[in-house]
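Note on ligand handling. Small-molecule inputs were canonicalized before submission; formal charges were left as drawn, and no protonation-state enumeration was performed. Where a ligand contained multiple stereocentres, the stereochemistry in the source SMILES was retained. For fe (ii) ion, this procedure yielded the string shown in the input block below.
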Amino acid sequence: METRISEIADGIFRLSTFVPDIAPPAGFTFNQFLVMGDEPLMFHTGLRKMFPLNRDALRRLMPPERLRWIAFGHYEADECGAMNEWLAIAPDARVAHGRTGCMVSLNDMADRAPRVLEDGEVIDLGGGKRVRYLDTPHTPHGWDAGVVYEESTGTLMCGDLFTQLGDGPALTEGDVVTPAIAAEDLFNYSSLNPAKGTTIRALAKLAPSTLALMHCPSFAGDGGTALRALADDYDRRTDDRRRALAEARAA
Ligand SMILES: [Fe+2]
Ligand SMILES: [Fe+2]
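Structure output:
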């Protein structure tokens, strides 16, 4: 396995590892995003067992010891499995996540106390980079779920939203919604809930020009429209599930 590096927006780098053995024959991709700044932030730590691969990849961009912030979408192995390995090699680094995630997992699981981020709170990374944390409970999954928006580049780091199979380009202007719908059909990975469409549509209001996605190419273009299309599909799924439940009760 190799980790490839691409700059997907000004000062935002995608570290991408393709694993052909997951969901074969298409395979599956794991991406982390480094936001450069005076205080560099990495979104996703990668799996704990992939830490040596990701550490060596990061070293091609900057000394890993300089890392200051570790953020991610929710508490799960590919999102944050290697957080303590990163904390061990970067003495000034700190995990930053929403209040729920800190309360239910990170206050215990992180080797150093995490910074608790309120919904909408900004970390100024210096060098013109500012990242805003947004709570998205249960979206795509996890009570503690959230996303991070880098304001200067209009880049929304969406985590598992838009997950798709395979190994695509680092950045695409093509359709990221249709493959995401197909992956949801296959994996059923999202927590369907009545608020899901509304939660995703609230992100669309940011009108991001880049979507940094964890398990597929990043997207350059009208991120708001892509998010609204994804929200519509989740509303459809929720309505279908409700209807099926009503029919089962009536039977
Ligand atoms: Fe996940
Ligand atoms: Fe993930």
